[in-house]
Every structure is written in C-alpha cells, then in structure tokens.
Amino acid sequence: MTKPALLAPHDETPPLAMVIFGASGDLTSRKILPALASLADLGRLNENFTVIGVARTKWSDEDFQEAAMSNSAAAGDRWRNLVKRFRYISGEYSSTKTFNQLKQLLTEADELHGTEGNRLYYLATPPSVFSQVACALATQGCNVPGPGGGFCRLVVEKPYGRDLDSALELDAAVHTAFEERQIFRIDHYMGKETVQNVLALRFANAIFEPIWNRRYVEQVQITVSESLGVEHRGGFYETAGALRDIVQNHVMQVLALTLMEPPTGMDANHIRDEKVKLLKAIVIPTPDEAVDRSVRGQYTAGIIDSKPVVGYREEPEVAPDSTTETYVALRLGVENWRWAGVPMYVRTGKRLPHRVTEVAMQFHNVPHLAFEGELARQLRPNALVLRIQPNEGISLHFGAKVPGEAFKVQSVAMDFQYNSTFADSGMDGYPRLLHDAMIGDATLFIRTDEVEQAWRIVTPYLQAWSEPGAGLHFYEAGTWGPHIADLLLERTGDAWRVPEL
Ligand code: BG6
Questions:
Q1: Closest C-alpha to 259, from 367, 345, 387
Q2: I need a surface site. Which of 68, 202, 330, 477 has the fewest CB within 10 A?
Q3: For residue 150, how far is its CA from the centre of ligand 1 (angstroms)?
Q4: Catalytic residue at 250?
C-alpha cells in the first residue's frame, strides 16, 4: 500500500547539507533563511544540518552568516549555533571553479557536521541560470548523493519557464541532470494551510462531495487580489505580468485542487495524477476565443488604504509605455462529466482594494421561490466560500427567516474561522515546503506534467495578447479592476462577488 504522505507524521528531518544558489539574493533573505530559522526553532532541523550559500556577490562566510542572523531576527539559540557553521562560495555559475569548491565544501560538511552525503540544492537564482546550475551540478557529479548518502534533491523556484516552449526546454535540460523524482518545483500557494484544507473539506466530509458538480454548482469564482503594487520587483514583473506571475501557477493549483476528482490516496502521485487530469480537462481556447474570454488590465495612480499610490508605469524599473498586465480576468470551462457547462471565473490583480484570496462555489437558485417581498428577491444564491487568506476560514451562505410575524427571508452566513478554532497555526508556507523537501515528500510540489499543462492552458492568452497593448484596459489603483471585466460575467447574467474580508 502507498504511504498516505499528507497524513504521515512529519518527523525530524535527516542529516543534510543544503546548498542555496542565489544565497545573497532577495528570496534567500526574505523567505528561505527565515524559514530555516523557524524550522530550527521548532526543533525540526536535524542537528547534523548545514547550509552552503553560493552567489556572485563577493561575500565571506561571515557576511553570509550575518545575513542568516539578521534576516531571522527572532530566531533563538538553535539557529544561532547552526549558523556558525554556514559556508559561502562567491563565484560565477559558469565557472568550474565554483562547483569544484562546492564539491570540497560538501565533503567537508559530511566530515565535520555529519551530513552523511545527503544533499538538497535550492535554485533561488534568476530563472535564466536554472538549467546552467543544474547541468553544472551533474557535470561535477554533484547530482547524486555523496558517499554514504541516501538522497540528492533539487528544489526549483518559480517561474518555471516563461511560456510552454521555454518550460519544456528548461525541463529537458534539468532532466539531463536530475531525475523527476529528485526535482521539487515550488509553488508557495501549496504550502498554505488553507489551500491544503481544500482537500480536507472535500475528501474528509460526506456532505460536500455529492453537491460538488454541475447539477448543484452554478459557477465558481477564484479571486487572488493584492493591494500591493510591484514594489521593488518592477524589472522582473515587466518580463512576467499577472498571467505568468499568478494564473499559470497559483491559480491553476488552487483550481485543480478545488475541481479534481477524489484521489485514491493522499500521496504525491495520486494527488498529482488527479490534478493533471483536471488541468487536462480545462478548455484551451483558440487565440480569438481567448480574447473573448479574458480581460487584461494595468493599474494607474489611485488610493490604497487612504494613501495615494503611483500607477504601474511610474513604478521603478517599469517602462513608461509598458503594456504589461497587472490584472487578469478569465472565463474558463472544464470539459468533463462533473463540470461541463459550469463557468469558472478567475481574476487576479495588483493594487486592488484588499489582499484577499478566496474560492467561491456558487450554487443554483431554487427552482421556484415561494417567498414574497423585497428581501426574498434580494436573496443571494447559496455559496460556499473558502477563504484562503487573510482571514482563513470557510463560510456557507444560505437564506434564513427574519424573526417576526411576517415570513421574510434573508441571506445569512455560517462561518468557520481557522484562527479561533485552532490555536496553533502549524507550519505554513516556506517552512512547510522546505521541511517536506528535506523529508522527500513531494505531495505539495509541482510535477513536470502539471507545469506543462498549466502552460498549455495560458498559451492562447499569451498569443492573443502578444501584440503590444492588445486589449489592455486601465484601472485606478484601489478599484476592483477594469469595468470591462464585468462583461465577462454579465453575458451569462452573473456578477463578480465582493470577496469576504
Ligand atoms: C508570488 C508572486 O508568487 O506570489 C508575487 O510572484 C505575489 O507577485 C505573491 O505578490 C503573492 O503571494 P501571497 O502569498 O502574498 O498571496
């Protein structure tokens, strides 16, 4: 029998030498080092653990150790003691010298810190060097465990390619160096407790599954809204845009978990097989149909949280005539027995009024409403809303009688809130994903066929929008995106929900 990975006890991690490429970069300081520090504090890191940082920046071991401490200010003694052994290599990714040095330090780590030949490489570099680093590791024989080691794994950050062709090319290159079972592609949304809770809600309860289909669900809306702009990432964002940055990965993952068939087991391959099957059922439109079923937008100056903010084109490192989209809305369809004909609306954007991510399953209206009066007419359809962030929880919306003699009905909500039910928020996000990569549980990581299919789904939109400025609509920062996005739904008599905060 296959091990139920998501349900397995998540014990201490094995002895390990972790190598971070891009060690002086933003992702390492904001996410990876703090995540490692929190794992150390939770007692989840093996005492035979160490980190080797590699980057082009001219740093010493001490500089890297200082960065590890300063980016994890609240970390305690366990982390402090580990950090003292961290090493740093300053070098080019194209240079054999860098990888020879790495080999030496890995041997040293085995000898001095008992890392037992286990390796975890983390590619936190710009994506342009992903394949170069992976191939150099193989050339130097670093793509296998060291002497006595049990495993050698490669964690790859997003973006995994910038379109289907480049993703396939990257995959082909990485696969010459590492086998698929060694590759852990990160999508940090999969590390969110509430995203994983979609599985619990659907498959640990008997009452939802019977209504989780076209007979009961009238439409699905997924919103990933951010009030932040592009911050200091304008340069990167110019090469990406909202479709590549959020839809191809985070939205597709959430959609797949929400709509897939029940897996036979909760292990990596059973879950990922079902996700891929679902992704393959998403209708791929022609570029013309894609134009009709999508809206792309870009924010202009406006007000967020009562403060004025600049427009996208005024952000640092953004071209003054940029046509990169910061907002996307799509009407998707899923061609399978369960979902045929149910519109799936997704939207994401920066500089929208709030940071909120939710999945809303909206059910059909009753066939005949016998109640009279204005309130009854205003009754909203039943909806089940999975609030992924920030106010994590689930709410069920239904009609209830208003107290009093007259028989009036009104929409009300039954609400489950994560933080009032569970005192311990557990290991969320990066610590959870890093921990899983260390223990070799790939359930929450993205398999090659998922990445490929997700690119296939977004390709027609990329093609349709490839003309500069094609169909780009502007929206004021602090609003819910371009008004024209309403038309995507109005044609079917639907409207965007106001997300729950
Ligand atoms: C990242 C995107 O993957 O996700 C960012 O590159 C975005 O642009 C971020 O801001 C959103 O993540 P979260 O966890 O804040 O919803």
A1: 345
A2: 202
A3: 34
A4: yes
**191 pLDDT more than 70:** yes
The two three-digit tokens of residue 418, written as one number: 């994560």
Q: Listing from the earlier edge strand, what are the strands of the sheet with 408-417?
A: 408-417, 393-402, 383-389, 356-363, 217-225, 344-349, 327-332, 294-300, 472-476
**Is the domain covering 16-157 a CATH 1.20.58.340 domain?**
no
Tell me how far apart the 2 most distant CA atoms of the chain are, in Å. Answer: 84
**Which CATH topology does 190-488 take?**
Dihydrodipicolinate Reductase; domain 2 (3.30.360)
The ligand 1 atom at the shortest distance from the C-alpha of residue 429 is 14
Ligand 1 pocket, mutate which of 250, 312, 433, 446 (most atoms under 8 A from CB): 250
* Choice among 10, 188, 232, 250 that is catalytic: 250
| pLDDT, the chain, mean | 93
Position 8 confidence tier, pLDDT thresholds 50, 70, 90: very low
Predicted confidence (pLDDT) per residue in 34-79, tens digit: 999 999 998 999 999 999 999 999 999 999 999 999 977 677 889 9
Confidence of residue 176 (pLDDT cuts 50, 70, 90): very high
